[in-house]
Amino acid sequence: MAGIYDDDIGSPYVDIVARMWGRPGTNFECAVVLDGISYAKVYNSVRKLGVDLNLSVLEVGRDNRDFTVSFWIYPNDTGGGGGTWRQVLYKGQEGVNRTFGIWLYPDANTVHFRIATTGSWNDGGNSRTQLPTQRWSHPAYVKSGKMLRLYINGILDAEVQLQGDVVANSDPLFIGASPSCASFKGGLAELRLYGFALSSEDIEYLALDRRAGLTETPVADYHEAVYEALLVGLGTSLEELRGLNALSADQRRALAERLGLLNVDPAMDYLNSLVPNFQPGTDKFELRLNVIFGLPLTFTPTEPLEVPSGFVELVWEQRGNLTYRWALEDAQQSRHSELDPDLFDLADISPNAQDWLSLLRSRGVELAVKFEEFDTLLRAGSAANALSQVYSSDELDKLKSLYNSEKAGEPIAQELPRFNLDRKMFRRLLVLVNMSSLGVAPTLTAYEQDDFAHLLTQLWKVRNRYAAWKQAEAAPALVSRLWPTLTTEAAWMPGSYKRDFLPWRGNAQQRSEIDRLSENVAFRFSSFSQK
Question: What pLDDT is attached to residue 131?
Fold first, then answer.
């Protein structure tokens, strides 16, 4: 069955389509599950997507041609009475457009099969047999010449002679609820439309029991099969995991290392978590496979799941294994770190982590104080005083001459690293330098003040504090590769990623957005570290 599924009847369900598909291994496997509200809608022309494919195959009965509709149906009940007809299938938009229409009676599972003809908009008949509840039955609706026949489970059940030629329509096909009727409650599967009248032998073949091969425990069988497949994909098996308690410490460590689950604490290698505490065939077992491996659920949970973190549990554990491996590599290396002075992160898990954090926090305070100092000077219109804390008067004159050289088309790129600048930083700084040269207090917006203060703080850090900070990092007690980063003689390029006191990017709003994102990353990392 193919088509476009719509939810334009205002259903209270968030995901009507996902809710409609039956669970694998159950009576509703590969079936559409209808609850009285949900439905599927197959368009004759795919105009909703901007393309008109004109699927004329759905215009059954056009030019009075023969056709067949066959399907499997599983009614959950016999209806609630009250005169409410229960829709099964409907091809049309208006109540008088019934080529074709199939209903169940309001208070019985009698099949009401109808078609529109030139002699009557409600031509057709009713079944002699009532469909059983909670069992699959196979109706086949056949228009053949002047006859309309209904087969149930391969046997002719009812037939009527039509009062005229068939009146076809190009309207959508509704599976379940139609514009005028609610759907029956139950399942529908293997819907087939043929552009000719099937023979009784063909219909008998289609009516073979679709559930004949189902075991007595289909859900449990599905769970066991998919669980074993997931374990094989990981590199292990259910048989191997069942023997966890018999493994020695070295054997268990080797298994954890092979699966990428080795941890600092051997008792927290996650191997036991790979074995669910629930029996196959239960929703809890399937939920556990969803959490560990990301297996899609075949049912709608009665309670909302936790907000997804972006990774399934197994991937989080394997990321922790990588962090542990990096720590082991760090411990074996004796080279000095390449730590950016303004980097603040909890990535280091070496024995000297607290010393590093203390060093970084003191630098953060120093940078924050200097930033406020620059911001105060700029707010007071003292751009010259702010610049003098970073560059000498001769250096400022040289920067002005570089600006003139650039305007004249001369290359200046090789000169900029002397001032710890790249081209973007140079052009931004020149705005402040020119304001200072005019001898008047610059009029700056709050964003501009923040932006210039940030740029000056970055330059002050590299030109005045960087050498001392790198020397402190070289202390024997602090030798560790905290984080692999690249440092240069110039300040850090715009666009590079740092935590806490970010490098200048030329746009205060952009920096705020990046800072917000980095806080989210830090929160997720912290949550992961505490698991």
Answer: 92
Query: Rounded to an integer, what distance in angstroms lies between the CA atom of residue 216 and that of residue 241?
Result: 27
Number of domains in the chain: 3
* Closest of 401, 461, 405, 396 to residue 429, by C-alpha: 396
> The pTM is what?
0.41
pLDDT, tens digit (0-9, with 9 covering 90-100), for 100-149: 999 999 999 999 999 999 999 999 999 999 998 888 899 999 999 999 99
Query: What pLDDT shows up at residue 20?
Result: 58
Q: Which helix (H) or strand (E) holds 151?
A: strand 147-152
Q: How far apart are CA 526 and CA 269, in angstroms?
A: 19
CA–CA gap between residue 237 and residue 335 (Å, rounded): 42
Boundaries of domain holding 130: 16-206
CATH of the domain at 90: 2.60.120.200
Whether 78 and 140 map to the same domain: the answer is yes
| Domain final position from 145, 174, 206 | 206
384-387 CB contacts, 8 Å cutoff, 24+ apart:
384/436, 386/432, 386/452, 386/453, 386/456, 387/432, 387/433, 387/436, 387/456
Say whether the peptide bond before residue 100 is cis (omega within 30 degrees of 0): yes
pLDDT recorded at residue 306: 52
Element (H, E) at 113: strand 110-115
User: What is the token pair recorded at 146?
Assistant: 């002047």
Q: Are 127 and 59 contained in the same domain?
A: yes
In contact, 170 and 43? CB cutoff 8 Å: no
Q: Whole-angstrom Cα distance, residue 243 to residue 235?
A: 15
3-state secondary structure of 415: coil
Phi, psi of 185 (to 5 degrees): -105, 120
Q: What is the pLDDT of residue 35?
A: 82
